[in-house]
Specification:
273 residues, globular, Nitrilase/N-carbamoyl-D-aminoacid amidohydrolase, 7-stranded mixed sheet, alpha/beta, 6 helices, 6-stranded mixed sheet, 28% helix
Length: 273
């Protein structure tokens, strides 16, 4: 099994025009593939402005169109595509969903955001549960490089979810996200690092770029971290693609040196295996 791969995080800004955003996303994916990426990762709600006034409107256009487009991008460029997230409408319920595709464009995973972003912060109130229903599954999927995991944004604050992924064999976790201008500078980088170090795995935080003046301003600052918490690549708040070379052998190396993950007391505590 090949243990070396390249991850590209496309930190794009979602435009108000869906067609324009999709064209831009296609170009970002194509460019990342041409520059050698094996995995290309898009941000949370990459095709829909992150505001309750847009979620259902974009979903009504059919998430199937976005899924078909992403499948085509993966197939045409020969990459694994972690499709950020899109608003998915099923049986009258709206979900914040991440679709994952292999190099042939086959859908190999779907993660519905488990923990919804309901906060009342100074100067900001946002209740994602007013729009979305929560998912209920831990998402781990197989690739030619081994098992990987996916989660979305606010899921990051719940360490049990990521411990379960690691126990199930995930070597890299991909997290499309849109932390805001309050929680981003306070917690984004630190929490990503904690989840990587907690489980001694690679962690990819894929943020949207900042849209200054929009209803919801995203912090940006996408990051890729190794199992020791070392930053392999990082962005600022602007549109860009970051690349990170990953050697999965680093996981065993770190766990041998500092075997916290190998010393779990499953007789005392346990997560879903």
């Amino acid at each position: 099994m090949n243990e070396k791969l390249t991850v590209a995080v496309c930190q794009l800004r979602t435009e108000l025009d869906t067609a324009q955003t999709m064209e831009k996303a296609a170009a970002f994916v194509r460019d990342a593939a041409e520059r050698g990426a094996d995995f290309v990762v898009l941000p949370e709600m990459f095709n829909c402005p992150y505001s309750s006034r847009f979620f259902r409107r974009v979903a009504a256009e059919g998430h199937e169109k976005a899924v078909a487009a992403m499948s085509g991008w993966a197939r045409e460029n020969g990459v694994y595509l972690v499709g950020g997230s899109v608003p998915e409408l099923e049986d009258g319920k709206l979900y914040n969903s991440c679709f994952v595709f292999d190099r042939a464009g086959k859908q190999i995973a779907r993660h519905r955001k488990v923990h919804l972003f309901d906060v009342d912060l100074p100067g900001m109130r946002f209740h994602e549960s007013d729009s979305f229903a929560p998912g209920s599954e831990i998402t781990v999927f197989d690739t030619e490089f081994g098992k990987m995991g996916a989660a979305i944004c606010f899921d990051l604050r719940f360490p049990e979810l990521f411990r379960a992924m690691a126990v199930r064999g995930a070597k890299i976790v991909f997290l499309p996200a849109q932390f805001n201008m309050t929680t981003g500078p306070a917690h984004w980088a630190d929490t990503l690092k904690l989840r990587a170090v907690d489980n001694e795995i690679f962690f990819v935080g894929a943020s949207a770029a900042r849209y200054a003046g929009f209803d919801y301003e995203c912090w940006g600052h996408s990051m890729v971290l190794d199992p020791y918490g070392v930053t392999l690549a990082a962005a600022d708040e602007t549109e860009q693609t970051i690349f990170a070379g990953i050697d999965l052998a680093r996981i065993d190396e770190v766990r041998a040196q500092l075997p916290t993950f190998l010393k779990l007391r499953r007789d005392v505590y346990r997560v879903a295996e």
